[in-house]
Fold 4-hydroxy-tetrahydrodipicolinate reductase.
Amino acid sequence: MIRVAVAGAAGRMGSTVCDAVNGAEDMELTGRADPALGTTLAEVLGDAEVVVDFTRPDTALPNALQCLEAGVHVVIGTTGFDIEPLREASAASTANAFYAPNFAIGAVLMMRFAAEAAKHMAKAEIIELHHDRKLDKPSGTAARTAELMAAASGGEQPPIHSVRLPGMVANQEVILGDLGQTLTIRHDTIDRVSFMPGVLLAVRRVAAIDSSPLVGLEHFL
Ligand SMILES: NC(=O)C1=CN([C@@H]2O[C@H](COP(=O)(O)OP(=O)(O)OC[C@H]3O[C@@H](n4cnc5c(N)ncnc54)[C@H](OP(=O)(O)O)[C@@H]3O)[C@@H](O)[C@H]2O)C=CC1
Ligand SMILES: O=C(O)C1=N[C@H](C(=O)O)C[C@H](O)C1
């Protein structure tokens, strides 16, 4: 059994992760940290082998550093923070960090297809659309898509447009344009359960990664 604690356990993602971990036969939910539950990460770290973090852009890095210092693997879903400080912390730790800006398989495929298309079409722009409680802008997925497209094409990163509206969960369109034609690649998340198979996969694999921090669910597919 993999002993898993969740940071942000009372949030939209964290509560869904707790349900998914409880439903996984090879995992045990050992801790739930969240201000709303009156519990801190420090209190749940001791019993965990892996922490899953879905918190806030300003807490994800300190939480991950705390996990690495304690020798506990961390799977990070929180977006909108700089992962660079995790390199030095990982080197000094027996534990690993894994970050994915998007754990949904459809979004991983969207990023892959967008990178492939960027090699062949003249210009592109990204539109990301999310619920209005989202704190970061642009989304982690859009930022990563732009990076992958620029790396594949050898050109500039495509501009990103952000929309925040009630009624939405998470959506992204990549529109590419060239002579007399456009290509649109779109992914829609209609329920946060879409992220759960990817999160559970990362929990199972994080202990065995050979380069930490590792970024992107594609490494496990
Ligand atoms: N990688 C992916 O596939 C996905 C990533 N995300 C990302 O996940 C993050 C969380 O999103 P979402 O669940 O919608 O946000 P929520 O605001 O619903 O949940 C975040 C929770 O974390 C709590 N929290 C804040 N600080 C701490 C801390 N130090 N320790 C433990 N818990 C803490 C918050 O409490 P309080 O409200 O009191 O601050 C809140 O309950 C965002 O960055 C989002 O972009 C979302 C979906 C998919
Ligand atoms: O905040 C969200 O909801 C989401 N955040 C991630 C991001 O910033 O890309 C993943 C997904 O888009 C949902």
Observations:
- The chain has a mean pLDDT of 98.
- Residues 79, 101-102, 130, 134, 136, 139-141, 170 surround LZUJQKHR (ligand 2) (CB under 6 Å).
- Strands lie at 2-7, 27-33, 50-53, 73-76, 97-99, 123-130, 160-164, 170-178, 181-189, 214-215.
- The chain has two domains: 2-99+194-220, 105-190.
